[in-house]
Every structure is written in C-alpha cells, then in structure tokens.
Amino acid sequence: MPTNLHRYYGAGYSHFITTSCYQRRPLLGTPRSRDLFLEAMEQIRQRHQFVVVGYVVMPEHVHLLFTEPERGNPSLVLAALKQTFAHRLLRELRAKAGAQANALWSTPLAVGHIWQRRFYDFVVFTEKKRVEKLRYMHRNPVQRGLVLRPEEWLWSSFRHYAYGEPGPVLVNEARRAELHIRKIS
Hints:
This protein has 185 residues and is an alpha+beta fold. Helix content is 38%, strand content 14%.
C-alpha cells in the first residue's frame, strides 16, 4: 500500500471518488442497503455543505462526483459518509440477526468491516472530464448487467439529468440559507 499518498484539495475542483465495500463484498446488494447509503449521503451533504454532481451506488462499490465541501475536505466527507452508513447498516443487520447472532459475529461485519480503508480520488478539472465521469457512473449498472438502461437503476443521479426528477440526494444545487428582505412599498 502506498505510504506517500497525496490528495489535492483546496483548489475548488470537483472530485470523482470511488470507494469499495470490504473485500468487494456486495454489502450494498439490497435495495434497502442502497437506500440507507443514499439517506446517509444526503445527511452528510447537508452537514458538510458540498454539491453532489453525480453518483451511482453499485452492489459492492460507490462512485461519487462532488465539489469540495465548505466544511472540511473530501477525505473528511468520505470518512463521515462511510462511518454514518456503516453504523446504520450494522445496526439494521444486528437487529435482523437476532437468534442468528452467532453467524453474524463470525463475519467481518461483526467487527465493523463495511468499507475498504482507501478510496480512489480523481480531481476533475474540466467540463469534458465532468461529463465523462457522469457518463461512466450512469452506464456502470448497464455495463454490469444489472439493468438494460441507465434510467432503470434507481440508485444513481441519472434520472435527475434525464428527467429532472428529484431523488433521495439533492444533485447540482448548493441550497444555502439566504436572507431575503422584502421591500415595503
């Protein structure tokens, strides 16, 4: 594993992030786990104030394209996202396990291994690269044979771009609190 990993933050560019589940296991293989991930992502987006440009949640990995956050940096955002999701997923899995607790506790999930430690971060400098990364993300479920068309995969930002549909994660909008002063006539 490289020890001199350099991340480039602070220039205001977007980041194309890929992170994988522990040992590439399909821990995001159910609709419920993918929904749970997107709920956590929206919460973290609001907390750290960054713009989600695009995303796709696959059964064993995630691709995200987002701007640098107003609070923290992309590494902190990803750490918060992974930790929030892991806590929620483990809580649900442990609650479901109940009588089968011995089986759960003998797996990597028992000690909280949901994610690989590292993640891939590609800094997106140009509009051409932004479009390339969005196309790659949105085509990923089709390439993997999960669906026939990108719009069929509900856990991506494709439907936002194709149809303007709001999804569980706000896409391409900063949504800051603004003070509006009405003029009295």
